[in-house]
TrEMBL record:
Keywords, sorted A to Z: Decarboxylase, Flavoprotein, FMN, Ligase, Lyase, Magnesium, Metal-binding, Multifunctional enzyme
Keyword Flavoprotein: yes
Lineage of producing organism: Bacteria, Bacillati, Chloroflexota, environmental samples
Cellular component aspect of the GO annotation: phosphopantothenoylcysteine decarboxylase complex
Protein name (record): Coenzyme A biosynthesis bifunctional protein CoaBC
Gene: coaBC
Residue ranges constituting the DNA/pantothenate metabolism flavoprotein C-terminal domain according to the UniProt record: 187-397
Entry EC no(s): 4.1.1.36, 6.3.2.5
Keyword Magnesium attributed: yes
Cross-referenced PANTHER family: HOMO-OLIGOMERIC FLAVIN CONTAINING CYS DECARBOXYLASE FAMILY, PHOSPHOPANTOTHENOYLCYSTEINE DECARBOXYLASE
Location of region: Phosphopantothenate--cysteine ligase: 192-403
UniProt remark on cofactor binding: Binds 1 FMN per subunit.
InterPro entries (alphabetical): CoaB-like_sf, CoaBC, DNA/pantothenate-metab_flavo_C, Flavin_trans-like, Flavoprotein
């Protein structure tokens, strides 16, 4: 679910200066395995030629309302009817107005009207055009009807000034498309809470005790759950990764901050996935000011952080599906099984972080899934995205009462 591979996507392109970015979006969607049909408005052709999209998709490009498909059926209804998702990127103010009032006056608006597929809009325009009450009312109405709105964002606009109206990053537009495709997914209506990354425990205002967790595994799970229709909260320790679009992200630094954020988010959740590497110890009494260098050695006294994993799970209630990670450097299964039992987890994801290609910072991971029923599933070395899918397959089974 949520994957664009094999999906029929209609890409509408309108007359905005951000049109050139639509070519990159089109190329990326094709590379991800989507079947992309491009509809250009008349104005869009002032900015970018149909040939660009025809070459990228190796399919006809449509712009005339009276165009026909290769089988001679009417493009203005057929394209929309067979689409899995309709994305308009960039969406001009004019097209927003047409979509809002249900106009069928050109090929793109007609395609949208004839389609029951989810609509993704990515507005891009001048700052005043964007903030105009007419535009805001049009966007609000489209959102109310279920359109997924991605951006705009604040930044440099074509007229040389900075303001709200810039096209959202293309990664976010693709995330919006994934969300659209994943709406009917198995986790639709479910709330999933994921913890990710490592924590940093201050020694003084400039130094900390931390660990090597990058957050990649937890972020991959958050995105995969979002793409299966879930409403996702991600509680993240410091990470270089960008906040995934469509996920509520809370950034924290210390273990105690992570506990507080999880306490706030876990209520009412259906699934808890604890992928964060939380510090077991923290420096006792961190210095208020930077500790100055002297010739003497320095000893740090570390005190035990409270292990809050069990408390968070209890707060979530008895129906909460609980998934924990165990990062180990030896005796993986023994330690994993101990943790599974201690925390009464439904699923324990054990990974040996010293194995090549596995563990912290890598894009791949080799894990063993230990189930509460005593089952053991050894997965091969996979990308973290693939591991996330495997974990969520198990989560779906647990939600439906299987183990
Ligand atoms: C150079 C130039 C840049 C433009 N950029 C935008 C833009 O970024 N966003 C927008 O809504 N309209 C923009 N317009 C105006 C649209 O092209 C115009 O409103 C047109 O009616 C859009 O029609 P369409 O939605 O059918 O493509 C621009 C016009 C020009 C001449």
């Amino acid at each position: 679910m949520g994957s664009v591979k094999g999906k029929r996507i209609v890409l509408g392109v309108t007359g905005s200066i951000a049109c050139f970015k639509a070519a990159q979006l089109c190329s990326t969607l094709v590379q991800l395995g989507a079947e992309v049909d491009v509809v250009l408005t008349e104005a869009a052709q002032q900015f970018i030629a149909p040939l660009t999209f025809q070459s990228l998709t190796r399919r006809p490009v449509y712009s005339d309302l009276y165009d026909v498909l290769p089988d001679l059926s009417s493009a203005h209804v057929e394209l929309g009817m067979r689409a899995d998702a309709l994305v308009v990127c960039p969406t001009s103010a004019t097209t927003l107005a047409r979509l809002a009032r249900g106009s069928a006056e050109d090929m793109l608006s007609c395609t949208a009207l004839a389609s029951t597929a989810p609509l993704v809009i990515a507005p891009a325009m001048n700052v005043n055009m964007w903030s105009h009450p007419a535009t805001q009312a049009n966007v609000a109405l489209l959102r109310e009807r279920g359109a997924i709105q991605v951006g705009p964002v604040e930044g440099r606009l074509a007229e040389g000034i900075s303001g709200m109206g810039r096209l959202a990053p293309l990664e976010d537009v693709i995330a919006g498309i994934r969300v659209a495709l994943g709406r009917p997914g198995a986790l639709a209506g479910r709330r999933v809470v994921v913890s990710a990354g490592g924590t940093q425990e201050p020694i003084d205002p400039v130094r900390y005790v931390g660990n090597r967790s990058s957050g990649k595994m937890g972020y991959a799970i958050a995105e995969a759950a979002r793409d299966r229709g879930a409403q996702v909260s991600l509680v993240s320790g410091p990470s270089a990764l960008a906040a995934p679009w469509g996920v509520e992200v809370r950034r924290v630094e210390t273990a105690m901050q992570m506990r507080d954020a999880l306490v706030e988010t876990v209520n009412g959740a259906d699934v808890l996935v604890m992928a964060a590497a939380v510090a077991d110890f923290r420096p006792d009494d961190p210095a208020e000011h930077k500790i100055k260098k002297t010739d003497a050695d320095l000893s740090l006294r570390l005190v035990r952080n409270v292990d809050f994993s069990g408390d968070i799970a209890r707060q979530g209630g008895p129906a909460l599906v609980k998934v924990y990670f165990a990062a180990e450097t030896r005796d993986l299964v023994t330690y994993g099984e101990q943790k599974l039992r201690r925390l009464q987890a439904d699923l324990l994801v054990a990974n040996d972080v010293t194995e090549p290609g596995s563990g912290f910072g890598t894009d791949t991971n080799r894990v063993i899934l230990l189930g509460r029923d005593g089952s053991r599933q050894d997965l091969p070395l996979l990308t973290k995205d693939e591991v996330a899918e495997q974990i969520l397959n198990r989560v779906e089974r647990l939600l439906s009462g299987q183990s």
